[in-house]
Design a protein that fits this description.
Elements lengths: L7 E4 L6 E5 L10 H9 L3 E5 L16 H14 L5 E6 L1 H12 L4 E7 L8 H14 L2 H11 L2 H6 L1 H12 L3 H13 L13 E6 L7 H11 L4 E5 L6 H4 L1 H14 L1
Parallel strand pairs: 2-3, 2-4, 4-5, 5-6, 6-7
Antiparallel strand pairs: 1-3
């Protein structure tokens, strides 16, 4: 499949180091709002994008593969005339980052892989979710999605934010969400991890029910040469939103150390 011109928001100095933020399945560029200002204050040029099929990006018919999503990011970098960028991704955005690290290493200055997996089964789960979304729309999975994204305590303390994130999931086009489910269903990047040469930080949420540290983040950190792993307490799957100060501290520490 040819690359899609994804929707993007570009902020910061034109001569600043470029940081590309890739989001979770079911999200749009707004999920990264807690990180934008701190990155801008440190002089980075921040590029957020909506994954194909999400937000304001086009919704080509499926199937999609992780390589297609990676190709979209390469096309974005080309259009912005960015030779190399720091890639910060969460969940599906980090899966895309891993693909780029293995297949386009010359374009990747560093990687931050948040709350993600190199192989996330069982495949039947993704096929079932895609069928549900195609039949009933993304509103049918919004409640369960937000429950994976946030700890119960956070939902109780911040019901307005939880409602905002549920509405974000419900607003994703059904075909885009379902086709991305298919990309995750067929993804297996475990054998490609040793090909990644970019300095890599892996961040996990201690209470992430979707990609728990054990069996996901630890496998990535072990597979990528020289990778470092951090586990953030009181964070579920959308850890960058639920624990923004700690995730942002870790991200900035990794980027500025380079």
């Amino acid at each position: 499949m040819s690359a899609v011109r994804v929707h993007r928001v570009v902020e910061g100095p034109e001569d600043g180091p470029v940081v590309v933020l890739g989001g979770s399945l079911g999200s749009d560029v707004r999920m990264w709002e807690p990180q934008v200002v701190p990155l801008l204050e440190r002089g980075f040029r921040v590029v957020r994008y909506d994954t194909r099929g999400h937000g304001a990006s086009p919704v080509p018919p499926g199937p999609y593969e992780i390589g297609d999503l990676g190709g979209d990011v390469l096309a974005l970098l080309d259009e912005l005339e960015v030779a190399r960028a720091h890639l910060v991704g969460l969940s599906l955005g980090a899966m895309t980052g891993m693909w780029l690290g293995a297949h386009a290493p010359d374009r990747v200055a560093s990687l931050v892989l948040c709350c993600t997996s190199a192989k996330l089964g069982p495949p039947e789960m993704w096929a079932d979710r895609a069928r549900t979304v195609r039949a009933e729309g993304t509103a049918a999975v919004a409640e369960a999605g937000a429950a994976r994204w946030l700890t119960r305590g956070y939902v109780e303390r911040h019901p307005d934010r939880a409602a905002f994130l549920r509405s974000m999931i419900a607003g994703v086009p059904a075909e885009g969400y379902a086709a991305c489910c298919g990309a995750i269903e067929r993804m297996d990047q475990l054998d490609a991890l040793p090909k990644i040469t970019a300095p890599t930080l892996v961040i996990a949420g201690a209470e992430d029910p979707a990609t728990p540290p054990e069996g996901h983040a630890d496998l990535i950190a072990a597979g990528v040469p020289g990778a470092r792993m951090e586990v953030v307490a009181d964070a579920a799957h959308l850890g960058s939103y639920e624990q923004p100060e700690e995730f942002t501290r870790l991200i900035l520490g990794h980027l500025e150390a380079l």
